[in-house]
Design a protein that fits this description.
Mean pLDDT: 88
Helix content: 40-55%
Radius of gyration: 20 Å
Shape: globular
Distance between the termini: 44 Å
Largest sheet: 4 strands, mixed
């Protein structure tokens, strides 16, 4: 039996929950066991599997840890250090998400090169003591944005920079359909069943992370969301306005 303990500071409940839920779901079919408990201000996620499955489970753990650092930790780093004259929530959400996903391949490499899965992994210690080069890389990007903050006061300049960042993100999906409901948006990629309803900010964040080649946006109203997405994705988005979409089965229209 191979085992690994991952320790997370109790203040980072969202991080611990993501690791636990992700690994529990991904290892269930290969006889993996995932449990967790809290003690002395830390949350411990324990992962175990048959010795013969150690290689597969290690890969799953590595991918999960990389995703946690590149999303949760990087977002926190941005929030603490990014100082821009942008107060509109959708614009700020889009800009942060673009920065989080910018040059993600290099982030992955730096983390993977330093990550060792040997019985115990204290995530915060690993982040602060082993990933200084990663934080320095993020700091350079943030410093560049902060130094040009006056330039970004202009809407035109802001959208030019945002489009540049998005155009240089890795494309993760060929085509995505988005359907507007009264209370939010559903997103459908490929044959996947639509997941939970998204807010405007959640939709913008998800589309930037997935960075598809083509977006089909089915709208019931002409609001600022479609206009905002059209500005940052330009020719990649097709917008269909139809006030009668509420009368159509949303799942049939997205097939």
């Amino acid at each position: 039996m191979w085992e690994l303990s991952i320790a997370v500071n109790s203040q980072n409940v969202d991080v611990a929950r993501f690791i636990y839920q992700t690994l529990k779901a991904q290892t269930s079919e290969i006889s993996g066991v995932v449990t967790c408990y809290e003690q002395f201000g830390e949350i411990f996620i324990l992962v175990g599997c048959p010795a013969g499955e150690q290689g597969r489970v290690s890969v799953l753990i590595e991918r999960c840890i990389i995703k946690v650092i590149c999303n949760f930790y990087k977002e926190h780093f941005l929030s603490e250090n990014l100082h821009l004259p942008i107060h509109e929530n959708m614009s700020l959400t889009a800009f942060k998400k673009a920065l989080i996903n910018f040059d993600k391949e290099t982030d992955f490499y730096i983390i993977s090169k330093n990550l060792e899965l040997d019985k115990n992994l204290h995530l915060d210690s690993f982040y602060y003591f082993k990933l200084k080069a990663l934080r320095d890389k993020w700091a350079e990007l943030i410093a560049l944005a902060n130094e040009n903050s006056d330039y970004l006061v202009s809407n035109e300049a802001f959208f030019d920079l945002l489009k540049f960042l998005i155009d240089n993100l890795e494309v993760c999906e060929d085509e995505i359909n988005v359907f507007e409901e009264e209370d939010g948006y559903y997103l459908k990629a490929g044959d996947e069943f639509p997941q939970e309803m998204l807010s405007k900010e959640g939709l913008v964040s998800s589309l930037i992370e997935l960075c598809p080649k083509k977006i089909n946006l089915f709208c019931r109203s002409d609001d600022n969301t479609a206009g905002f997405l059209s500005k940052i994705f330009e020719e990649r988005i097709n917008v269909c306005y139809n006030k009668n979409l509420e009368k159509v089965d949303k799942f049939s229209i997205l097939k």
